[in-house]
Each structure stands twice: as C-alpha cells, then as structure tokens.
Design goal:
Elements lengths: L3 H18 L4 H6 L1 H5 L12 H15 L13 H10 L8 E3 L11 E4 L10 H5 L5 E4 L2 E4 L9 H5 L5 E4 L2 H5 L5 E3 L5 E3 L9 H5 L5 E3 L3 H9 L4 E5 L11 H10 L4 E4 L1 H20 L5 E2 L4 H9 L14 H12 L4 E6 L4 H7 L5 E4 H10 L18 H4 L6 H9 L8 E5 L3 H13 L7 E5 L15 H13 L6
Parallel strand pairs: 9-10, 9-12, 11-15, 12-13, 14-15
Antiparallel strand pairs: 1-8, 2-5, 3-4, 6-7
Length: 480
C-alpha cells in the first residue's frame, strides 16, 4: 500500500516541530503549528472542516512531542506539552498511540458479496464454504457474518470475482490481534499483546496510529552541546540522498558528536551466531532461529515462548555496537537511528542506549537544519564494516552472513521467514511443536517484508534502496 499522503503529512509536522525547537520561542512556535499548516481561508484537503484538520494536527504534534493521545485531556495547550517535553527525564514504555480524531472507524473485517454476483447455477461459493455461511437470497449469494470465518475460500471460488474481503488495514495487518475497536468503533491498541512491529503505523491510510517520538529528548541534548553519539542501522543505506559517508558528515553538522555503523555490531553478531549454530548442530539440535529482529524477539516473549529454546542466544548488532561505544564514550547520550518502531522496545531495555530516532525523524532534523547531504564531504568511519554486516537489513542477509562466516564442515540450510503474519507465525509454532523444521536448519526471521529496508519508518522504496546498498556492498570487504 502506498501511503505517500500520510507520510508527507507526518513529515511536515516533524520538520515544523524541529524548526520550532531551534527557534527563539519553541513553546509558542509549537502551539502555532496546526494554524501555520492550516491558516484561515486555506483549503481543507482531508477532513470536513479546518477545525477538525487543526485538531488532528494538534494530536500529531502531541505524539511527536512524545506523549500519549489517549491520555490527553484536550485542555492542555501545545505550548504546555512542549514545555513538558523539555522538562521530562524519559518517556514511558508505550511506544504507539492512536489519534482517535483521525481514525475512520472502519467497518469490521468481513467477506462481502458485491453487485457483480450473477446468481450462477454452479453455486461455487456455497460449495467452497465449509461453515455453511453462504445462502441464496433473492437469487444472489448472501454471507451470514455470524458463521463466516473470513477464510476467503468463497472469494477464490467465485468465477466473477464478485466476493471481496473488506479489510480494516490496521487490524488486518496486525499479526497478533493487538488492535481492536473501542466502544466508539475506533482503533485501540492492546499493549499487552502488541509486539511493536509498526505494521499498523505503515498500513493505516489515515495516519491514525503514531509512534511516540523521542525527538525532543534528543534535540535538547544536542542543543545544550552534550556529547550525543548516533548508531546508524545497516538499512539506512539508500534511504537518504548521498552515501553513508556524506550522511555521517551531515549528522555531525546537525549536532551529533560522532556516528557509528551498527553493521560493525552485525559483524560480531555474525561471528558469534556462526559459532553458536555449529555448537547446536553438533549437539544434535534440529534448527536454530536468528535473534536480530526486535519484532520477532517481542513475539517470542509474548506469543511464541515455545520456540525460545531454538532461538539463538547471540545478542543483536545494536547490543554489541552500543557496548563498544559506551566504553569509548562513557558519559555520552547514545542514539540508535532505526528503520522501525520495534527497536524502541529494545532501546528501552538496553542500558547502553538512551534514545531512538527513526529515519523519518532524522530526515526532519536535516531538513529543519537546512543540511543537504549531497553537498557534504565524505567522512570515513573509524572501522569499516563488512559486506555481510552491511547487508543485515535485507531479507536473507543475516542467514547469508552466518553461512559465509561458518566453517566448511557445517551444513547450513537457510529457511527464510520474510515477514511476520498470521500464517508465518503458525508456521513457526508448528516448527516449535514438532521440534523439526523440514524447510531448513537456520531460520532467519524478519518482521518486515523485505527485511529492515521495509520498516515502517523507511523513506525510500525497497528497489531504490537496494540499488544504493549494492553500490556500497561492491566496495566492501567480506567478513573475516
């Protein structure tokens, strides 16, 4: 789904908030954002009236200031929220929030017979349904929603494509059923179930689900000239104009004291996971799953505990690079620059990482500071990462790296789970229950389709990002 409109809207709010922060009056400039974006007499592009537009923009600003929309009393001004953001020490653990005013309150997920139905003699839809949910009413097929299981067999059977599935994007895409409707029919997140995969953020065509940003927490440290170190994820290559060496220069111009590649940590993860895999196979274990994806790790904690004994004990690339950087810069504020919301949970649990900034927030910072990456000179990294480490953000990259680093006497047969959804979760549950994976012995699990380059906070289409990444990989050396 192409959500270009909602992405552009969210980016404009982030950029204006960044500009407000570096202005002479942050609180007042923040208060005026909804009015500056929708001044009196302007066209109303999305909603019924300018007042609702402004109300939703106000909520977007609240989320980008790091607060929960659900806890807003509507009496607190944006200027007050801006002041509270400056004064707070930390944000809480709920990383997502729903803008109720922006939520469309979509009809429930259901199978629906359209007017294309011809009332054919074959009755293919009726014979395909195993639950007795389809009958003929006035010569047309009719679906009893109380019996329907949304299996889509009738849709597949209809020769006229007359049966469609009406899907609620956020509910339909959530792999663990963490989104439901509240008493008003609006989206509600069950944080006990939520694995913070960010799929709902990416899929909602109204932009009603937002991350709770730590942007202001990061910017206030930069503004006060504290040492702030950025750790950039491997999937950042291709997300911005220019290469990663120019991006490093641009980020330093924006106020970061230093920039490190998380791919350096990926190299450590690769070597440790290759060693661990060899030991497990020699001990007769049937398979091992990789451990890098934060969404998958949250899934294992909350919904798939039975697979934990097969999961790698190796730490994530972020863990290893943060450990290295903390030792070098003990008093610094360390910021992980991420493609997705799932890593926010990992950051909250890692004592060596203080904040998370996603790619869209970094883009807003550079835009707000009027920094053109392509005009920047290249700044080398203290240590160059391997080709395999830099390819961690692409589906198959982790398994490929482990295979490259493994001994020749170890037989690796990769099984790639390219996106967590209801079907792939069932697949993983079956592997765990059976104690066997007929599809391979090293299972790489990526929460997002395509890998981290498909994360909810990425900026470029995967095809574009892959081309830029390949240029970098061609210049990089193999892992040693």
């Amino acid at each position: 789904m192409d959500n270009t409109g909602t992405i552009a809207l969210k980016q404009e709010v982030l950029i204006r908030l960044t500009e407000a922060f570096f202005s002479e009056d942050f609180e007042e400039k923040t208060r005026l954002i909804p009015y500056d974006m929708r001044p009196k007499g302007s066209d109303v592009p999305f909603r019924c009236c300018i007042y609702k537009e402004r109300a939703i923009l106000r909520d977007r600003v609240i989320a980008d200031l790091g607060f929960s929309i659900e806890e807003d009393n509507e009496e607190t001004s944006l200027s007050k929220y801006a002041k509270m953001a400056i004064e707070r020490d930390k944000t809480d653990e709920k990383v997502l929030t729903v803008i109720g005013a922006a939520c469309k309150g979509c009809v429930p997920n259901q199978m629906y017979v359209t007017n294309l139905c011809q009332g054919c003699v074959a009755r293919s839809c009726m014979s395909a349904c195993k639950f007795g949910a389809i009958s003929i009413v006035n010569g047309k097929s009719h679906i009893d929603s109380s019996k329907c299981k949304n299996c889509k067999m009738c849709m597949a059977a209809c020769p006229y494509n007359a049966i469609v599935k009406i899907a609620v994007p956020c509910e339909d895409t959530c792999p663990v059923g963490a989104i439901e409707k509240d008493e008003n029919g609006l989206a509600k997140i069950d944080h006990e179930k939520c694995i913070s995969c960010g799929r709902c953020v990416k899929r909602c065509p109204f932009g009603a689900i937002n991350e709770r940003s730590q942007l202001i927490d990061i910017l206030k440290n930069i503004k006060t000239k504290k040492e702030v170190i950025a750790l950039i994820a491997p999937s950042i290559t291709g997300q911005f104009k220019g290469n990663i060496y120019q991006l490093k220069t641009a980020m330093i111009k924006a106020g970061f004291s230093g920039v490190y590649e998380v791919a350096q940590g990926a190299d450590i993860t690769t070597l440790n996971e290759a060693k661990e895999f060899k030991e497990r196979m020699h001990n007769g274990e049937p398979f091992m799953t990789t451990s890098c994806c934060a969404g998958y790790n949250e899934l294992r904690k909350k919904h798939l505990t039975e697979i934990n004994k097969f999961a790698s004990d190796t730490k994530t690339p972020l863990y290893y690079i943060a450990e290295i950087v903390r030792e070098k810069h003990p008093g610094a504020k360390i910021v992980f620059v991420s493609p997705c919301v799932a890593k926010r949970k990992e950051v909250l649990e890692n004592e060596n990482v203080d904040y998370l900034m996603n790619y869209r927030e970094l883009h807003a910072l550079l835009e707000g500071r009027k920094i053109n990456i392509e005009e920047c000179e290249e700044t080398p990294f203290d240590k160059e990462s391997s080709k395999q480490g830099r390819n961690f953000g692409v589906t198959g990259g982790v398994a490929g790296a482990v295979e490259k680093a493994s001994d020749s006497d170890v037989n690796i047969n990769p099984c790639i789970i390219n996106c967590l959804n209801k079907d792939t979760i069932k697949q993983l549950k079956k592997y765990a229950k059976d104690g066997n994976c007929p599809d391979g012995n090293l299972i790489e699990v990526m929460c997002c389709e395509g890998g981290c380059i498909g994360g909810n906070a990425t900026l470029e289409q995967q095809k574009t990002a892959r081309k830029s990444l390949q240029i970098l990989l061609d210049k990089s050396s193999d892992i040693k």
